[in-house]
Amino acid sequence: IVFSSFYQAKEKFKKELKIEGFLYSDLSVLASDIPYFPPEEEEENLEDGIHLVVCVHGLDGNSADLRLVKTFIELGLPGGKLDFLMSEKNQMDTFADFDTMTDRLLDEIIQHIQLYNLSISRISFIGHSLGNIIIRSVLTRPRFRYYLNKLHTFLSLSGPHLGTLYNNSALVSTGLWLMQKLKKSGSLLQLTFRDNADLRKCFLYQLSQKTGLQYFKNVVLVASPQDRYVPFHSARIEMCKTALKDRHTGPVYAEMINNLLGPLVEAKDCTLIRHNVFHALPNTANTLIGRAAHIAVLDSELFLEKFFLVAGLNYFK
């Protein structure tokens, strides 16, 4: 009787959300059944190489932002031959332009590999917010070509892949505009497509024309409709109703989406996965302006543990 009531309530809830897909409780098998603290850990055999996981923070963030993400992956996959690089080269200035931040991250990755003399079997990237754009930009650099065939998973947490156009929060849009003016931020100018009068010459549009994402085995896009900082459709790389009605910018927006998704669809060994996240958030000002949901993908233990146990760990095995 209890199960029947739960099932009925769950189906009603799914109809109210108007989403197609699965909920946590629909999946009977966990991504990992290994205990967090196994009694005896075997010594790792590193002859086959290690799996380097590069974590990149977002705007005004730091190298500790993704510490819980790292923790739950390590707990769920003990002995997984994982080496984490928590990027810190951009934490002093995330308001610089993307080319500058790309150079810093690329230098940091290569220096890390050389410093520890790492034998790399696979490379995965985890980015939060603006950090995802820096990651995609690194993939296009000639110095990174050697590592393209080693790419495994790209986990994007609230990434503004289509910029911040068509943001439905006037408050956030105004705040970003003020911040860009005060900080003279190149990255914020590029995210809002104001770095060139010709939209097709803007950084994000030109980045969409370059190869990169299709080299991954898994491209995982995590987005929340409660996040007002990064538009839901931008984090999911999909069209929105406002863009469809916009005859000026809309077609350019559609071209960007096709540029990004076309190669992914054609790549036989690449899988695109989208996860929609609905957080249980308190009724606060941060929730109202959408910041709470934007940060929750980093600091909500409830979300992170469920996400990695149910699905996320599969992408790093």
UniProtKB/TrEMBL annotation:
- Name the SUPFAM superfamilies for this protein: alpha/beta-Hydrolases
Locate the coiled-coil region(s) and give their ranges: none
Q: Which InterPro entries match?
A: AB_hydrolase_fold (IPR029058), DUF676_lipase-like (IPR007751), Lipase-like (IPR044294)
A Pfam family (short name) is DUF676
Residue ranges occupied by any DUF676 domain in the UniProt entry:
48-241
Look up the domain of life of the source. Eukaryota
Q: State the similarity comment.
A: Belongs to the FAM135 family.
Its protein name is Family with sequence similarity 135 member B
The opening ranks of the lineage are: Eukaryota, Metazoa, Chordata, Craniata, Vertebrata
Coding gene? FAM135B
